[in-house]
Amino acid sequence: MDWHHPDGGICAYDTQARLRFTKYIRDLNEELLTNYGKIDILWYDVSAPMESWEGWDSLERNQYLRSIQPHIIINDRSKLPEDFGTPEENIVPSERDWEACMTFNGISWGYLDSAQTVPYSYTPQQILKMLQTCCERGGNLLLNVGPKPDGSLPEEVIEPLTKVGEWLKINGEAVYGKLKKTWGNTNQANGISRSTTKGNTVYMWNKIWSPRNGEMGLGGFLNSPVRIEFMDGTPIDFEHKGDRIILRGLPQDSPDPILNVPIIKIIFDEEPQYRFASYFPQLNRGRHPREIK
Description:
Elements: H1 15-34, E1 41-42, H2 53-56, H3 58-68, E2 73-74, E3 98-103, H4 114-117, H5 124-136, E4 139-144, H6 155-171, E5 193-198, E6 201-206, E7 216-219, E8 227-230, E9 237-241, E10 244-248, E11 263-267, E12 273-274, E13 290-291
Parallel strand pairs: 1-2, 3-4
Antiparallel strand pairs: 5-6, 6-11, 7-10, 8-11, 9-10, 12-13
Helix pairs in contact: 5-6
């Protein structure tokens, strides 16, 4: 969609306008993909007013643009699935590559009066929850901030984003890089923690820190870790007992003074094997042990 082009609206029902407008779109993209070196992503946005890829000539145009930039990936907003999905204002995991497109207030991509949007704006913990879901399920988080009319950032976004940035400086290893995609009950979760996995390492994100007498149990791990530590490298004493990992000597206060979301790093010497409800096999409904994916 081009909100200002004279053919941008009428192209849906005027054949000549459609031919002019689709040529305009093709020429724009050809220029962008020709004059600026290697391009990684072609990210279409609003697919209105057309109702199909045929209306946009998407198949022919995308094939042509790939001939210019063979390594480019294209999103799903030209009415074709292409390389990755872009759910908007909802984090909807998919078995294909995907990117959740979220506004900071759940209302608008552009500027709104800060005094009215503050109650709807995300807290740092809410941002981490979205980020963890995306990391766990193989997606990316695109978090939008609508600038003020003078181009500056709204005051309500600065502290949450700064806090998340401080947290990522310490815990970014659990977020960035090639993470394993987790599905169904292959993710260790108990309501107060979730995990991400990279190689032979599982990162437990603890939303609530409540070890009893300095101990915490993690159920369902079939093989024993070789080392467990906090993200700063401080080792954690543990015992692998049956399918449970018992952590010992944990501090009473949260080890994360920034957002109270500490990560425990569990390192294995082989692929970590996990089974949901390992002490209650009837809850598995015949499932076999599966590795964390």
